[in-house]
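Re-run requested by the PI after the first attempt was lost when the workstation crashed. Everything re-entered from the original request form. Ligand of interest: S-adenosylmethionine.
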Amino acid sequence: MSAYDRSVSEYYSKAKLEEQILDALKTTGKNIDELLVDDLAALDEFHIRGRKATEELAQWARIRADYSLLDVGCGLGGTGRYLATVFGCNVSGLDLTEEYCRIAAMLSARVGLKSKTFFRQGSALAMPFADRNFDIVWTEHVQMNIADKTGFYNEISRVLRPGGQFVFHDIFAGNNEELHYPVPWAADNAVSHLIAVEDLRSILSALGYIHVQWEDKSSESAVFFRTVLQRLRGQEWPPVGLHLLMGDDAKTKCENMLGNLQNNRVRVVQAVMIRGR
Ligand SMILES: C[S@@+](CC[C@H](N)C(=O)[O-])C[C@H]1O[C@@H](n2cnc3c(N)ncnc32)[C@H](O)[C@@H]1O
């Protein structure tokens, strides 16, 4: 692993994360030997608007049970477990952070999805998959940690079959002003690389993608962080939540994201594209 990848992976890794997650679930009265996919939703979808965003994208994409789907930068695998449960498809998840892959596999085993979801450690820039291997490639909140955008989207195109769907929910540069740090994906700009939405459009268009659906979700994303912060006023985080992944400065990260969205320093876009044949 390169020094850069190691620093990204170390940023996400948390001491005793598996233990903390299982303890938090027990605190809320869950039997960790009889978990449901929905019991994990508050913590295993590490992106803005959580499950809601994944549900929207899933409605836009035409997912079939016989499809093979790849989630690039899958984190703890929550998106994959949701899609495998609702649509019956097989989901592979790839993530740079070894600890996340291990916990993702453990959580899938606990909800009975061991034979539908598969997790592997690896880099999105050199994926261990054959060309044209997947019907859908999905990614949420990963490319902000990747400087080589062309390499990232090229690699996605390589493993996606022609006519397949590329589904993303991601964070982009707004007015090019420096972000307020820390943010959920970076402590500072050393591992944060945002491009403008217009540059993304150019890259995808050069790769031959065609729009199915494209929506700017910046306002709804600001509402999401405002709601999280309002709920926290004078209160602790609920036991099961994204703070387990974001760490001790989780509240500051949410405040900074609200500021970044309100000042147009970042924009959030969700889209479904078709790879040209
Ligand atoms: C904010 S989390 C999002 C996780 C997941 N997509 C979700 O929505 O729950 C970002 C994830 O991207 C992963 N990541 C960052 N750079 C990566 C790379 N080059 N290749 C693969 N995964 C990467 C991190 O390890 C982390 O799990």
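Saved to the shared folder this time. The mean pLDDT is 96.
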